[in-house]
Specification:
Keywords: DNA damage, DNA repair, Endonuclease, Glycosidase, Hydrolase, Iron, Iron-sulfur, Lyase, Metal-binding, Nuclease. InterPro entries: DNA_glycosylase (IPR011257), Endonuclease3_FeS-loop_motif (IPR003651), Endouclease-III_FeS-bd_BS (IPR004035), HhH-GPD_domain (IPR003265), HhH_base_excis_C (IPR023170). One of its GO terms (molecular function) is DNA-(apurinic or apyrimidinic site) endonuclease activity. This is Endonuclease-3. Its cofactor is [4Fe-4S] cluster. The protein contains twelve helices and no strands. It has 219 residues and is mainly alpha-helical. It folds into two domains: 80 residues, Orthogonal Bundle (Endonuclease Iii, domain 2); 114 residues, Orthogonal Bundle (Endonuclease III, domain 1). The protein starts with 5 loop residues before the first helix and ends in a 27-residue tail after the last helix. It is elongated and about 55 Å long. α1 packs across α12. The structure holds iron/sulfur cluster (SF4). Iron/sulfur cluster binds next to α10.
Amino acid sequence: MGDFPIHSVLQRCATAVADQAPAAMFGLRDEGYASLYEQLVSSLISVRTYDETSTEVSRRLFARARTPEEMIALERQELITLITEATFAPAKADNILALSQTIVDDYGGETPADYDQLIAFRGVGPKVASLALGVALNHPIIAVDIHVHRITNRWGYVATSTPDKTRDALAKKLPQDLWVEINRVLVPFGKHVCTGTRPKCSTCPVADDCARVGVEHSR
Ligand code: SF4
């Protein structure tokens, strides 16, 4: 599908979910939690945690500590309590404290705006680093989560078996101005329209452009 109208499709998807809550990190950024450090921490908190929960948890945490210096001043137990609703709270608290300490000790308190340096932090994988750099700094990095993976495959825009392979395929064909945008739009679109089971194809604004690969049951 070399002529897939990706700009127009994403624009229609964005319009369809304009009234829905934005993906957690984009929402936090728009509330003012826009620094790379805040985005890195909230991205870490969001791993395997519902968007609504991770947004709440991040807000509560940032009310107490918004910088690496403020974070390492917290007691470990207090940090665990602040983020307790996130999955794996004790491990995430340890990772947040460790990376904050390293940022203070080795980087003079400035979170390094570099993918390789970010993924060197314990607990920070490719998705967390990509999302933080993309959302905070608009770095042209594609953050592929399960929604982006599922929907671009249903469209027939890519044909891949894992989110990692989808990221590689998108890097080859997705126009760069959409690399951050695709995550911002397709997370809420995947929750409310092109859902995991029984997507709402009958009212979908991009149905005419969608190959519906692998979709057997829809609404
Ligand atoms: S037509 Fe169906 S499968 Fe295709 S994007 Fe819309 S909801 Fe998803």
